[in-house]
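Progress note, project year one: complex with flavin mononucleotide.
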Amino acid sequence: MSRKLHLALHPYGVGGPGQHGLWKDPRVAHDASIDINYYIQQAQAAEHALFDALFIVDSQFINATYPAHYLNRLEPLTLLSAVATHTRHVGLVGTASSTYNSPFNLARRFASLDLISGGRAGWNVVTSFDTGTSRNYGLDEHADYTTRYGRALEFVEVARGLWDSYEDDAFPADVAANVFLDPTKLHELNHVGEHFKVAGPLNVSRSAQGQPVIFQAGVSEEGRDLAARVAEGIYAPGGTLESAQEYYADIKRRTASYGRNPDHIKIFIHGGPVVAPTDEAAQRREREIAAEDNDLDRHLALLGRSFGAYDFSQHDLDAPFPDVAALAEKGGRTAATKIIERARRDNLTLRQVAESAADFRQSPFVGSPTTVADRIETWFGAGTFDGINLAFRTTEELAYFVDSVVPILQQRGLFRTEYEADTLRGNLGLPIPVNRHTQARQYVDAVGA
Amino acid sequence: MSRKLHLALHPYGVGGPGQHGLWKDPRVAHDASIDINYYIQQAQAAEHALFDALFIVDSQFINATYPAHYLNRLEPLTLLSAVATHTRHVGLVGTASSTYNSPFNLARRFASLDLISGGRAGWNVVTSFDTGTSRNYGLDEHADYTTRYGRALEFVEVARGLWDSYEDDAFPADVAANVFLDPTKLHELNHVGEHFKVAGPLNVSRSAQGQPVIFQAGVSEEGRDLAARVAEGIYAPGGTLESAQEYYADIKRRTASYGRNPDHIKIFIHGGPVVAPTDEAAQRREREIAAEDNDLDRHLALLGRSFGAYDFSQHDLDAPFPDVAALAEKGGRTAATKIIERARRDNLTLRQVAESAADFRQSPFVGSPTTVADRIETWFGAGTFDGINLAFRTTEELAYFVDSVVPILQQRGLFRTEYEADTLRGNLGLPIPVNRHTQARQYVDAVGA
Ligand SMILES: Cc1cc2nc3c(=O)[nH]c(=O)nc-3n(C[C@H](O)[C@H](O)[C@H](O)COP(=O)(O)O)c2cc1C
Ligand SMILES: Cc1cc2nc3c(=O)[nH]c(=O)nc-3n(C[C@H](O)[C@H](O)[C@H](O)COP(=O)(O)O)c2cc1C
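Model obtained:
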């Protein structure tokens, strides 16, 4: 098989989706989510296993009811920069909101990470789920979907323009001629758009991979459209085989419809594998994990998250799910709509809805090493993903996956046995974007004056 | 002498003030300003020499006429985060503009650096000198001094409020009781001010030093006032012994007038020592350096920087300095006013003004190791600084200073022979700020209900 599987690692720290009680596991340090050594070790383990990338999620709104791993964590770019110098191959993808950043500032930080890591940076563009984030940025209201995704698109375009400020041969640094910079190879952007006015140029040059890789996470119609237009990677939820196939086909089709090569967008689904020596042991472990994730207060808080940090604890737990549709228009419309529809269809109480909110955890990758490898091969062959964003409860479980499942994937020719490149683009099989100004120059050279 | 001298290192990369031709020195790598290994080595050398901190300057506006070291450089916080895990004691001070950042975003990044470094982060608050920065942030005009410094003050207050979101014992992480966070120890800020509305809380806890150390750089009346109100460190230009004394006394007096302990603001002056085995050799070297800094285009560009990136090359170089006073109100009023006054007083041409703009380089610390140590001791004793922000042209010159001057300072009891602490506050002799909410709680406990 020539199409290659990609694997990334989403380190949980003290918790993750459907893993809100993880901090209680005695093997998990209580400060894991703020311990840079934990992340360096995770990145080194990922690199040892030849994974494509370390993937850091993020959010910027909390209240005291939120699960442990949201409460206290490192900012993704400072985190990844510290990790960069302790690794050499693994990609470094950080989540940052296009709704609550300025393009010049964020483009510069990613450009800097891209240089520090030698061309391994990726930016997971999110528009921010938590509506309360607006109040940390001076705004009473979170912008609606159209505004947020419109801003995201323009933001990425501006960032890419800034990243091309310098052509790759802009710095002759010719001592005899007293020329450090060739001034014709530095370009202002002078962007004027609906959301941004940015003059440029950026004061950072391009890295070995040209520009950071753009990822995206967001499954609404607007999110899919953004991905198809500009993303080179996606963090997608996964779900069932059928829903993953639908999503995968839809994204590839949309990408092609924008005149882009659909191979140049790599879709990663979330996978929280549970692997054990036998299928039975893995299933038992999966049930234990599900049983452990039993903190109703945390479930209510997370449920509320999709409705603007709405306080569901004020409602009767055993009455029908309350009518909160009006609260769902902003942050988490896609998630909220699903919850409401299911509650209505199945006539669920608030308690039932809260308890079943752990959907995201349910992983197709539960079983013995062979079973999990089989399942990965089947799903991969069925057009459901290009890669998996793997998340493990503990370092031990990551190590077991690497030792037991990865070799099978390698034997089957699905996964690399050595890194193809030192850059994230190189390993993902993504082209290096030619600097737009060099491209223009090449065109003029070709046509002649 | 009980008052201790502090030393920081300002790495030049490919250039610095009055060192605009440095990139031509064969010992300087052309990519030093974007090479993280260069900064790691500088930080490790600073730590080996027991310096208090590495100090990273910054700017966010360039055009093709700017000197080499402005053109292409790493963003300070990603830079320092990468350096953090390769050092254990040295402080990490990064420059960031309060004019072109959001408090929640920047407070979070510094809090993250503070955790990653184990309590060694410092923030050099600047209001941005280059007026053109505004056009990278969607604004046609750079804000005036009152607005910029008003915003800076409020920004620092908000950041400090956010940094106190969690009391130090907020996370019992009690598995038996199923309590990760004690919710009474997480605090919203709910700041509403002239420039910012920020709800909080911040999703990052405090570090070993409580909060990042606030530095400030800016010498206007407004800048001095900001420093006296909130800064714990200053990067000051130095100048003559008399001007440094005046500045030092003024800052300490102002600080006391705000009810603060004047020992809790450490004034660092810029020092670019030129040390050689003999005084003569050092003076010869100093003349060579001055002669080398002869790129008139770069001098014109830097001169223009104080007047909103004004293009002085359009004027006759040998005519009297043009009337540009109207351009000096915004970014660099203090510097610009000095330039205009001197040009008028001494009847200078544009060329003369441009050529003498290298003032900042002229260092009082030129001579043999003993001469330089004497000079440092005299200035220190004369109340001109608490510390020196040392800048060296090359790694070799840094090494020579460390090997020849530092031991003399240590013998005289002026400089430490081992680190006092693992935190920046600890080494600077600054107190750890008690969390404001803990303080309030302690007060209530003391008075009783
Ligand atoms: C797999 C996945 C991972 C995500 N990770 C983040 C994240 O780390 N931070 C964040 O703010 N939003 C994250 N999001 C949320 C999206 O950014 C988006 O705001 C949210 O899903 C609402 O938009 P949508 O309806 O388009 O999905 C993620 C979404 C998905 C599907
Ligand atoms: C020693 C020194 C170092 C400075 N470093 C920076 C810097 O790295 N970045 C920056 O934007 N401004 C820097 N500044 C400029 C100040 O932030 C300030 O904007 C400028 O000096 C104009 O304000 P003022 O008139 O109060 O000095 C520095 C100023 C001094 C005196």
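Residues 295-358 of chain B form one domain.
Chain B has a mean pLDDT of 94.
No further modelling is planned for this target in the current period.
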